[in-house]
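Students often ask why inverse folding is considered easier than folding. One informal answer: many sequences map to the same fold, so there is more than one right answer. In these notes we will look at a single instance of the problem. The structure comes first.
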């Protein structure tokens, strides 16, 4: 068997090692230089918020932390490849039409490379009205996605072609309002509204929807037919020295004029003004306050408290559904950790602010994916240039927003209609006094059914009107001269301390629970 000779490798000299290392380094550098660089689309967004709103502090509260959380989530999860990067800079609109417009226009004064590519916000409708109009014009054409503007006319795409919002319009409350009227079998409604564009539009939409839905026809539920009576503007000039005096005088004039016609009032005004109106009504000796029901929008537990208990009890308030999902809870925890404050609170507009930026990102992602799929044979350079232009085109972004599938946001499932308005998800609360603590709380009475969009009575819900009764006010005697017709009673649906067999010429017992379905109310009103 032949022997095998083993040779020991000769160690490389120190100079050889250095030479080899140099070659490897040069090869690595050459590889990096020859590898295609990752093309990045930068989307710069201006967030229109109020650094200090009417002396009460920033609005929405903690907006810096909320947007920081949104940016982190978007750049990590919506665009994990890093090919699109979103950044935000905060702009102070002061919740003022003038200052908001200045903040927007200033963004287009400098170098094109410094300009924002779109806006989220504003939160105040008076700011939106002018700012959203300007950014839709030629020379601007950038998207604006509001988190709180509810002015009905902003739905007009002929005027506001690059505007979208993560809240519904105030007019979207007209359908659930109609559901309520049907459920309560109220035949006469008074509508009182502040002399502010937001509420003027809402009042007109409510009146039109109610009248188109019910008309003048009669039914077993509405034997006298339905009518809107006492359609009044609550006018006063809050900037005058005697503005508050005018406020009370104007309210009392309306109440005295309407007291012989109606007992159910829709009040469309700022939440603090609604509370003031109820106070005036309760103090006016000539007005039958205890016989009445009042409905409004967006009055929450932050507005109604024990100091207002005597005149706010029984108030019904329609509001956008409060967020209660994992994404919102993560946002709350992010804000609290950032502030090192476990007591920090967020509300629905904190969530819709977050979702406004997320909506922009989702639209940009959709555009990128659709374009690259449709132009797979084009060069990366050409695709990048086209997508960069599209994701900064306001008309394109808003059109895509209307086509997005529902997605999970901090405020709940987010879906838009053909006007780029968030499809409404409404809850109805009632101000009720707790029999044990004697404190007033906003208690959820109706929710929106996820499948049908109709109002549904919350299981176990019990009404409590301003006289403490659970019986729904139905004062037909006011206009018919007849005692209200009473129906079958429902055991257990009475306020503790009330006689369950209590009768009144102005009330009838609680309605059965179930969906409030009104096909005609769900049709579009033009």
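Output (designed amino acids):
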């Amino acid at each position: 068997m032949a022997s095998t000779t083993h040779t020991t490798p000769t160690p490389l000299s120190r100079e050889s090692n250095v030479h080899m290392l140099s070659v490897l380094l040069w090869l690595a550098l050459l590889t990096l230089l020859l590898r295609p660089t990752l093309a990045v689309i930068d989307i710069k967004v201006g967030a229109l918020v109020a650094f200090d709103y009417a002396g009460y502090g920033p609005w929405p509260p903690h907006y810096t932390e909320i947007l920081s959380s949104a940016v982190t989530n978007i750049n990590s999860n919506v665009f994990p490849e890093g090919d699109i990067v979103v950044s935000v800079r905060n702009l102070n609109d002061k919740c003022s039409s003038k200052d908001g417009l200045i903040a927007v226009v200033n963004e287009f004064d400098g170098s094109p490379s410094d300009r924002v590519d779109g806006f989220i916000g504003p939160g105040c409708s008076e700011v939106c009205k002018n700012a959203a109009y300007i950014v839709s014009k030629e020379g601007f054409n950038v998207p604006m996605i509001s988190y709180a503007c509810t002015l009905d006319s902003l739905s007009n795409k002929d005027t506001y072609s690059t505007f979208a919002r993560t809240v519904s319009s105030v007019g979207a409350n007209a359908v659930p309002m109609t559901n309520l009227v049907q459920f309560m079998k109220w035949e006469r409604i008074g509508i009182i509204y502040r002399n502010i564009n937001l509420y003027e539009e809402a009042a007109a939409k409510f009146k039109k929807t109610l009248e188109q839905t019910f008309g003048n026809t009669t039914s077993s539920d509405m034997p006298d037919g339905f009518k809107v009576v006492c359609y009044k503007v609550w006018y006063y000039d809050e900037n005058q020295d005697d503005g508050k005096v005018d406020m009370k005088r104007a309210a009392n004039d309306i109440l005295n004029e309407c007291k012989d016609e109606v007992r159910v009032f829709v009040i469309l005004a700022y939440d603090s003004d609604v509370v003031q109106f109820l106070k005036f009504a309760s103090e006016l000796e000539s007005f039958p306050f205890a016989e009445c029901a009042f409905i409004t929008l967006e009055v929450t537990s932050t507005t109604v408290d024990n100091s207002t208990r005597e005149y706010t009890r029984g108030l019904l308030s329609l509001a956008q559904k409060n967020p209660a999902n994992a994404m919102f809870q993560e946002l709350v925890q992010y804000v609290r950790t950032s502030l090192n404050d476990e007591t920090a609170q967020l509300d629905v507009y904190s969530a819709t602010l977050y979702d406004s930026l997320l909506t922009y990102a989702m639209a940009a992602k959709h555009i990128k994916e659709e374009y690259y799929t449709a132009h797979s044979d084009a060069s990366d350079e050409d695709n990048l240039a086209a997508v960069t232009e599209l994701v900064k085109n306001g008309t394109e972004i808003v059109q895509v927003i209307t086509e997005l599938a529902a997605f999970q946001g901090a405020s709940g499932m987010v879906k838009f209609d053909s006007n780029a308005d968030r499809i409404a998800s409404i809850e109805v609360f009632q101000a009720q006094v707790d029999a044990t603590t004697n404190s007033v709380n906003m208690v959820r009475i109706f929710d929106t059914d996820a499948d049908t969009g109709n109002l549904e009575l919350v299981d176990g819900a019990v009404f409590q009107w301003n006289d403490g009764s659970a019986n729904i006010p139905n004062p037909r005697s006011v206009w018919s001269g007849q005692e209200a017709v009473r129906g079958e009673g429902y055991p257990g649906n009475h306020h503790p301390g009330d006689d369950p067999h209590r009768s009144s010429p102005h009330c009838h017992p609680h309605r059965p629970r179930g969906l409030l379905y009104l096909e005609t109310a769900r049709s579009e009103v033009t």
